[in-house]
Design brief:
Blueprint (H helix, E strand, L loop, with lengths): L2 E3 L5 E6 L5 E2 L5 E2 L3 E2 L4 E2 L4 E8 L2 H14 L1 H9 L5 E6 L3 E4 L7 E3 L5 E2 L2
Parallel strand pairs: 9-11
Antiparallel strand pairs: 1-10, 2-7, 3-4, 5-6, 7-8, 8-9
Helix pairs in contact: 1-2
Amino acid sequence: MLGVLLLEEQACASAGMFQNSVMMPDGSLCPAVIDSRTMRPVDNDIASVTVVYGSALGASVLARAILTGGRVDGEALLYEFPGSAAIIAMKDNTVWISPSLKGRFALRADGFTLMN
């Protein structure tokens, strides 16, 4: 568990490299999420994303889009969907949270630090 999130009349959904990954012969994990721009497995610095939004379906779609696009593009995408927010755990064990989630998310996992 990364942390505790307080939700108030909102839904959340997560997507990450840990879901449906395939173990390759060399021992590496190949994520099941495909980047439609390259038609290759997603390969960026995000480990997992949790999105808070007004609907579970919207949160799920946004979580996958952010996982695919990366943190910087993901932050920009959130601004296009009013009321959306995210927690993005990076592969280097840093965690980015949307400003609107400050005070509503408590990091609990050892070895992780907040970016902002």
